[in-house]
Write a structure and sequence with these properties.
Order of helices and strands: HHHEHEEHEHEHHEEEE
Largest sheet: 5 strands, mixed
Structural class: alpha+beta
Distance between the termini: 20 Å
Strand order of the largest sheet: 2-1-3-8-9
Keywords: 4Fe-4S, Iron, Iron-sulfur, Lyase, Metal-binding
Organism: Pandoraea thiooxydans
Protein name: Fumarate hydratase
Shape: globular
GO molecular function: 4 iron, 4 sulfur cluster binding; lyase activity; metal ion binding
Helix content: 25-40%
Family: Belongs to the class-I fumarase family.
Number of domains: 2
Strand content: 15-25%
Number of strands: 9
Radius of gyration: 19 Å
Length: 290
């Protein structure tokens, strides 16, 4: 199967707009679960207001949040798929720029030193593009995740010592959630990366933070850590929007990688309650959106 760059450009454009306007069903279901479990009257009122905001945004075809974020695209390539890598990269960037101009969207991307905004949501090394591979034949998926500053500002890396064990990771995650408080617009998805190198560990944390609710770490020990931390964070009292209550997080997600014998890195990256994402699946039958 050969991938047409023009189809990728159009998909990248539509996915950016779609992600900003439609909240995934698993997140809506997550709100329902938190509303049912919330014991604080203030917490229930805040959650109800957030749910109404989501409904109004979707009913009126408006953005879920004014922060259009840094555009991130995850590309997963199946077996037998042919594509021009450079053309794919250019097509995604062109789709982002078109979405920003044609919708129009607020461009949140600036030069880090001059703060110049090109008003295309693009720039040096932006959009962020990650490419991975899978064994499924004749299939390419393109996932779009806009990551805003509220969630990105709450990111941490700790190069823990192996002798400190898992307890050091647990303490680190809890400290991060408390430090973030209401700044990530909770309830959040707390993404935790464990292992790898420093940069891989942070990347794993972001993969974890942007996974669908209900998914679990493939590693048995990582999955156990998810369960333990998910039970703990909602006892911290941060609550929805940091105003107190039980609904601090939808879940804690963990991703792991093997690491060096003298390393035990841990990273945290959070996703806000507006956990936006959209996906396009390319197959010989065409392009399907999820």
């Amino acid at each position: 199967m050969k991938i047409d760059p023009a189809a990728v450009e159009e998909a990248a454009r539509l996915l950016y707009i779609r992600a900003l306007k439609i909240l995934p069903d698993d997140i809506k279901q997550g709100f329902t679960r938190l509303q049912a479990a919330e014991r604080s009257a203030t917490g229930r009122r805040v959650l109800d207001t957030m749910v109404r905001n989501i409904a109004v945004a979707e009913q009126t075809d408006n953005l879920l949040c004014q922060d259009t974020g840094i555009p991130i695209y995850n590309v997963v390539v199946g077996r037998g798929v042919e594509f021009d890598g450079w053309a794919l990269k250019e097509a995604i960037a062109s789709g982002v720029a078109r979405a920003t101009r044609e919708h129009p969207l607020r461009s949140s991307v600036v030069h880090p030193l001059t703060r110049q905004n090109l008003h295309t949501s693009c720039g040096t090394r932006i959009p962020v593009i990650h490419i991975d591979f899978c064994e499924a034949p004749d299939c390419l998926t393109l996932e779009m995740i806009p990551k805003g500053s509220g969630s990105e500002n709450n990111s941490w890396l700790k190069m823990a010592l192996p002798a400190e064990g898992v307890d050091a990771i647990k303490t680190f995650v809890v400290d991060c959630v408390l430090s973030a408080g209401g700044k990530t617009c909770p309830p959040t998805i707390v993404g935790v990366g464990v292992g790898g190198t420093a940069d891989l560990c942070v990347h794993l944390a972001k993969i974890a933070a942007t996974r669908p609710l209900g998914s679990h770490c493939d590693d048995p020990q990582g999955r156990e850590l998810e369960t333990q931390l998910s039970n703990v964070v909602n006892t911290l009292g941060v609550g929805a929007q940091g105003l107190g209550g039980d609904a601090t997080a939808f879940a804690v997600h963990v991703e792991v990688a093997h690491t060096h014998i003298t390393l035990n890195p841990a990273a945290v990256n959070m996703q806000c309650h507006s956990a936006r994402r959209a996906l396009a699946r390319f197959t010989p039958a065409g392009v399907a959106y999820e």
